[in-house]
Amino acid sequence: MPRSDYVASIRGGLGNDLLMLPGVTAVIRDGERFLLARHAHSGAWSLIGGAVEPGEEPLDAVTREVLEETGAHVRVNSIVGVYGGPSLMVEYPNGDQVAYVTTAYECHLLDTATPDIDELLELGWFSRDQIVSLDRRNWIDRIINDCI
Description:
Elements: H1 5-14, E1 19-30, E2 33-39, E3 45-46, E4 48-51, H2 58-70, E5 74-83, E6 89-91, E7 97-109, E8 120-127, H3 128-131, H4 139-146
Parallel strand pairs: 1-7
Antiparallel strand pairs: 1-2, 1-4, 2-3, 2-8, 5-7, 6-7
């Protein structure tokens, strides 16, 4: 997804320097399998999520992000945890540096998910054992390990 007008306005003065942003992550499960997305900008697998917009409730942000990226609706069941630190620092291809602090929500998929081809290469269901062998964003391991 292209950056929001809010982030674009900050980037106008900040340039590519590090920007800390609140984020949300959807942990969508089917039993012991997790829905992951392979992102077009990196080719890496990750959980679905994104930034919280100004004035937006995080709960609304996670449902919006899932809908934008997969065309599917979710029911949010609970909060898994809140995560940040070095593993959630990203440098995008354009040089923008971002440090996310993300709230992870365990969600139940209500519709069939199909990838938004502008942002995602593909979606897939993976067990914990399969996830560790994927080219992935390593921070997702912490979140998945916290899911009971």
